[in-house]
Design brief:
about 130 residues, mainly alpha, Four Helix Bundle (Hemerythrin (Met), subunit A)
Amino acid sequence: MIAQSAAAQAAYARPEAPQRSPRALEYDLLARATKALSDAANRPSDGFTSLVAALDANLRLWSTLAADVAESGNGLPPKLRAQLFYLYEFTAQHSRAVRERRASVDVLIDINTAVMRGLRGQGGAA
């Protein structure tokens, strides 16, 4: 644990470390959440536990994104902010349905992938 902490401090303290844009960070977080959802959906041998953990992590991410777009100082256009907040609400409802085994995780993977395309400037987000 101490070695990890020292390594983290060294990495953050490096002045030559590249600065990442908020879009790049959001993309990476969505990519990780999407991979976890996909991996869990494709590994039925792990049972339902890994899927629930991936759903929870994805929902925490979307909750953070929703809080950000709900802030009055958010610089995104109002229509896009509303669309992203709607996606959070849908994600919360659909995640509940997946946990109750009434729905597939595929829609959540598709949503994350579409938003990632939008973050990369490829269209298809919200």
